[in-house]
Write a structure and sequence with these properties.
Layout: H1 2-16, H2 32-38, H3 44-48, H4 51-58, E1 68-69, H5 80-93, H6 97-104, H7 109-120, E2 127-130, H8 133-143, E3 151-155, H9 160-173, E4 176-180, H10 189-199, E5 204-210, H11 222-231, E6 235-239, H12 251-254, E7 258-262, E8 274-278, H13 311-315, H14 317-327, H15 329-348, E9 353-355, E10 368-372, H16 377-388, E11 390-391, E12 393-397, E13 400-405, H17 413-428
Parallel strand pairs: 1-11, 3-4, 3-5, 5-6, 6-7
Antiparallel strand pairs: 2-8, 7-8, 9-10, 10-13, 12-13
The chain binds pyridoxal-5'-phosphate.
Pyridoxal-5'-phosphate binds next to helix 8.
Length: about 425
Amino acid sequence: MKKNRRHFLQKISSLTGAIALSPIISNAQIPFEKTIEDKAHLSAEECAVDDEFWYQVRQQYTISSNIINLNSGGVSPQPKVVQDAVVRYNQLSNEIPSYYMWRVLDQGKEPLRKKLAELAGCSTEEIAINRNTSEALETIIFGLPLEAGDEVVLTEQDYPNMLHAWRQRAKRDGIVLKFISLKFPTEDQNDIVQQYVNAFTDKTKVAHVTHMINWVGQILPARAIADEAHKRGIEVIVDAAHSFAHIDFKISDLDCDYLGTSLHKWLCAPFGTGMLYIKKEKIKKIYPLFGAQEKLVNNIRKFESLGTRSIGAEQAIGQAIDFHNMIGIERKQKRLQYIKNYWAKEVSKLENITLLTSLDPKNACAIAAFSIKGKKPEKLSGLFFKKYKIHVVPIRIGNVFGVRVSPNVFTIKSELDQFIEAVKEIAKT
Ligand SMILES: Cc1ncc(COP(=O)(O)O)c(C=O)c1O
């Protein structure tokens, strides 16, 4: 491509803002495989700043050219290849649903499990495919054998669904919840480990750890917390809703006992797809949320008795993994860190702004949040959309008030420039 097309891209982007590119350059013109091949010589750091590469990634999606989406923390869009697979599988299923879904498409289930296990870095016998993080973690929260008086250590900033589930368990079974409260940003991860350790007692049975806090993107030192917990015979549940396929880790690196994630977040898989991990030797003692055959007692598949579900969506997880692997987690993480810091550094220089997220790649990646003195979060996010057509979300949780911003691999710098300008204008008023 090189010179001419680069020149063309630069010209268009400076004339009209690069968001105008998507209808002009279609992915049919430049096969994505070719882009990957052309850039194979770049290191992950070099690729992170190579906007031409990321323009091509953007072309693989069907996102709006007119509204800027900075809320991938909610749920991510799927690349076209994943959307197409869902449509194809659903059309096939609609010919004879019980035949094509259960006898044909479902043949792909075990190969998919293998692919997911490879991506996650664990055995196929430790992975159940389900619909989301809530389902995965509530399976553990409600399935763990705990008795009245047993203690669970968790944070006030864990995800509400999980807190609701733990509170329900406390009410029903008399278990005791010990909350710690995190400060954002925390630059020294040891402080977080120490807070968990201080809350552990002889009665603690479980530590609940949100690997990446959804409100502000703070990364928790899950492995170090797990090591301290295990020394005391405490089991560890990791909420990996935001860390999976976003930052570079394998489940084995964390040495947790249980983990749940949503594949429709950073993997960009179909909506309503998720994954549960349980360490092999723990499977037997966890009751599944939905009753399963007794012979499956020691089998991870006992957590998949969900009844009828969207097999098309489930099978298209495979295309999402292929797409994710084409970009590669190292390249993806470096790019996400780069674009997060691109806007966050600029915004943090402004008067009246408090950044609630660390700029250190060890402590955060794509998700970050900030507050503007005297401005209410809901009003602020409303203003971003109404005046600038930028989609961000308000956050209001305990001691944290602000706006959360979460770009993705399809976000281009001209969008972030528009966002920075909008923040400057709003902060001045
Ligand atoms: C940290 C965290 N855990 C769990 C969830 C729940 O995810 P889902 O709605 O896919 O179950 C979310 C959703 O945003 C989250 O941010």
